[in-house]
Structures are given as C-alpha cells and as structure tokens.
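Thread: quick sanity check before group meeting

JM: Hey all, I'm pulling together slides for Thursday and realized we never actually wrote out the predicted structure for the chain we discussed last week. Dropping the sequence here so it's in one place. If anyone has concerns about the input, flag it before I start.
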Amino acid sequence: MSDAKKYWVGLNLVKGIGAVRFSSLLDYFGDAETAWNASPASLRDAGLPEKIIEALQFTRAETVLDQLWEKIATENISVLTWDDDTYPRRLKEIIQPPPVIYVRGRLIIEDEWSIAVVGTRRVSTYGRQAVQEIASGLSRYGLTVVSGLARGIDAIAHQTALKSGGRTIAVLGSGVDRIYPPEHRRLADQMIEQGAVISDYPLGTPPEGVNFPPRNRIISGLSLAVAIIEAGERSGALITASFAADQGRDVFALPGSIFSPQSVGTNRLIEAGAFPLLNTKSIIDVLNLTLVHEKQIANQVLPVNEIEASLLDVLSHDPQHVDEIRNQSDLPIEKVTASLTLMELKGLVRQVGGMKYVRICEPRATYKNGE
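JM (edit): ok, ran it. Output follows.
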C-alpha cells in the first residue's frame, strides 16, 4: 500500500473536506501530499474557506500521519482512493463518491454484482423469514449482499449470506475500528473472512446518529439494486431507497399487511413505483441476472490448458502487471500475453488497465489432459 495514500487519509480527517473540496484541492495542487502541506495562503488561493483552512491546520498539528499509517497497516486495514483501480467501479460512478474508503477484509471484482438488503431494526417474524429467503437466494446466485450491520434486517441479511456460503459487505456509520452495535463484533469478524467491512469515515470515528444517513448512499452506490424488506414510516431504509433512486438503481420492496407498522414504508414505496419483492427471482428477472449465475457455472467447468492453469495459479483478485505475472509463472512473455488475451475472452481473467490483470474464476487445483 503506497505511502502517498497517507496524505489522502490526512485530508479525510479534516471536517469540511468532502468529495467536492477534495477534488478541488487535487485539481489545484496536483496531489494530496502537496495539498496537505500547503500554506494557508496557498489554500486560500485554492478557494478553501477560512474555517476549513483553520481545521486543516489544526488537524495537521494534532496528527502524526506516519503513526496513523502504521496503525492502519498493523490492523490490516486497506485504504482505497479515487486513484486505485480496485476502487469499487459502481460506487465511483455516483455523484460525489467518497475520496477514501477504509476496508477490513477484501473487495473483489465479483462484488460489482451486489444487491443491498436493508430494513427496519424492529423486524417481524414475517420480515425475518423474508430476508432469510432473499439473502440466501441472492447468495446462491453468486451475488454479494450489502447492508449496514444494524440490528434487525441488516444483521439477518449478513448472517444469512455467510451461512449460505456467499459474500457480504457491511457499510458502517463509524470508523472500521469502531464496530457498532458492539454485539455485532463477532459477525463483523466473520464478514472480514468472507467479504468486507468498509467505511468512508476515518479511524476512531464514533457511531454518531448523523453519520448513518450519509453512509446509506454508499450502500446503494455499491449495489445494482436495493431491496427493502421492512420499513416503518420513518425508517432509515427509506433514505437508502431515496439514494438508490437518485443513483439510478432499481428499488424493490417487500409487500406487507396494511395493518403492520413495519410495512407502511415498503407499501408506500410500491405505491410510488418500486418493484414488489415477492422472492429472489423478482430481482433476478428484473435485472436480468440469470447470466451471472450461468457464467459462474461456466467458469467452474471451463477446460483450461497447462499454461492457463499455471497463470490462474499466479493471478489473484488483486491487479498484477503482465511482467510480474511472467516472472512468477516462469513462462515466455509472448505465451503469457497471448494466453491472457484468450483467457479474457473466456471470462477467466480481466484486464483492469495498465497491462494489469485480475482473476475472475477460481484456479484449478490440477490439470489433466484438458479435462
């Protein structure tokens, strides 16, 4: 992880520097390090308000970036910025995506096929049964379940995805080192092994109420669509649905009894045009995701030759340059490049720019006569 990122982390600590001001600073100074070290006069020239300049100076004086960066590394936290190829593509497409994301666990390319599953903390028996069916069904289709680790629907969605052998991602309204609610720490640890826990809030940020509505735009931003299982009249899940609509994501809502307080929000969403969520197939059919499942099955059974098998063993979900792949595989460069081109056509690997490749399917343990 590049040390240059620590200056992104530093600027991310400053209250008042969001996506818009962050972008302006990078445009003016060229990089985060120069912006972090800039004089007050230069910051004024860059258009930063006096109050934000004071906040930046205070943060700079109170923060030892090297120590913070060491803490991030020690706790196995990854930092993704706009400059990273591994920054989630769908999230980067929204208006004002977060400049910095802190990740515990791992985000992979397959997470582009994510569905957000959110809802009330006061889940009913009906809601519990529904979210278990939906989350397990999404996992069987190879889709990643995204939610907010909150009590109720969120936690059940995460737990069900894990039990179904699927991937799941939690987006926090606090720093990734401040799991909330505290009784979900064990769940978060399990998710780190089978997905990720992420946040755009700096380390140490407490779970204050004002943090949660903004994080909902990340939940929807990461996802192809949002499924609202149960939501009262003022449920935070309705905020996620609103963000999803603004971002061009489809919204699905579980129909419920007209007498149930937990179904007031979802029934109104359906009345306003959301897709009725009757089962997992409702999502699969509307989004035409059947091909995702079929492609994953094809990847598992697609024959490969010895060279392709060797390259799959070298490749991972982290981008690697073709020269690095050649060195690790000990194959001639012309065979490496030719094979990678064919493998990309087969859906085994993907080029992510700059002659860097990632693995899409899982490597074969053995190769026997083309079987």
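AS: nice. Confidence is low (pLDDT under 50) at residues 364-371. The radius of gyration is 22 Å.
JM: adding both to the slides.
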